[in-house]
Amino acid sequence: MPKTAPFEEHTERYEGWFEHHEDAYRSELDALRRLVPTTGYGVEIGVGSARFAAPLGMQIGVDPSGKMLGYARERGVEVLRGVAEWLPFRDETFDTALIVTTICFVDDIPRTLADAERVLDPDGALVIGYIDKDSPVGRRYQETKEQNPFYRDAVFVSTDELVDALEAAGFTDFEFVQTIYHWLDEIDGPEPIEEGYGDGSFVGIKATR
Asked: By its UniProt entry, which InterPro entries does this protein fall under (predicted)?
């Protein structure tokens, strides 16, 4: 079942994270800007409140949380209620599919990636942003997940695990960026954005075929 309850019950707390950690949020957003195409028709899968979809130019978003979709709609994104594993779109609909800090919440990662591949144009790109399981922030989240209503049921993945899953879904070419080199409360200003992965806690992958 979709892990929607925390997002329905703690919507304001979720929104407050972006205000309290604005420098981290801006760093993640700027990292993804390096990967997300600037043209074409785009969807965010697990759009939440459209904190990423709106500034990154995604026209439509899907999410199982009605409250989150309300915020996304206010930010100018067309919304549909649905889950990542069974997207309500025809084959080859989009030029870009975006999944940000959502992959750890889906029920079935292989099915999610396969359906993202299905709705993408053959020349389209899937861009995923996430906290790497093996990073300092990822390890901290896992150690304290029982205290966090959002991450309590999350299943974090490493970059290598995600690449394996992407290859199984039919993706063959990958581009990586990384950022967030400090614990979130210690960040005071923009974090560096670098190619690759293994140092930054937030990783972006652009996957194509």
From this structure: Methyltransf_11 (IPR013216), Methyltransf_Superfamily (IPR050508), SAM-dependent_MTases_sf (IPR029063)
Task: Tell me if 61 sits within 8 A of 43, measured CB to CB.
Answer: yes
Residue 98: the pLDDT is 99
Buried b (16+ CB within 10 A) or exposed e, 158-188: bbeebbebbeebebeebebbbbbbeeeeebe
CATH at residue 133: 3.40.50.150
CA dihedral 49, 52, 55, 58 (to 10 degrees): -90
CA 12 to chain centre: 19
pLDDT at position 6: 80
Residue 200 scores a pLDDT above 60 = yes
pLDDT of residue 1: 53
Angle (nearest 5°) at CA 209 between 31 and 30: 5
Q: Which pLDDT band, with edges at 50, 70 and 90, does 2 fall under? A: low
pLDDT tens for each residue of 81-119: 999 999 999 999 999 999 999 999 999 999 999 999 999
Torsion of CA 139, 125, 193, 11, to 10 degrees: -50
Give the domain extent around 158. Answer: 5-208
Cβ neighbours around 132 below 10 Å, total: 25
Structure pTM? 0.96
Domain count for the chain = 1
- What residues contact 50, with CB distance under 8 A and at least 6 apart? 44, 58, 61, 71, 72, 75, 76, 77
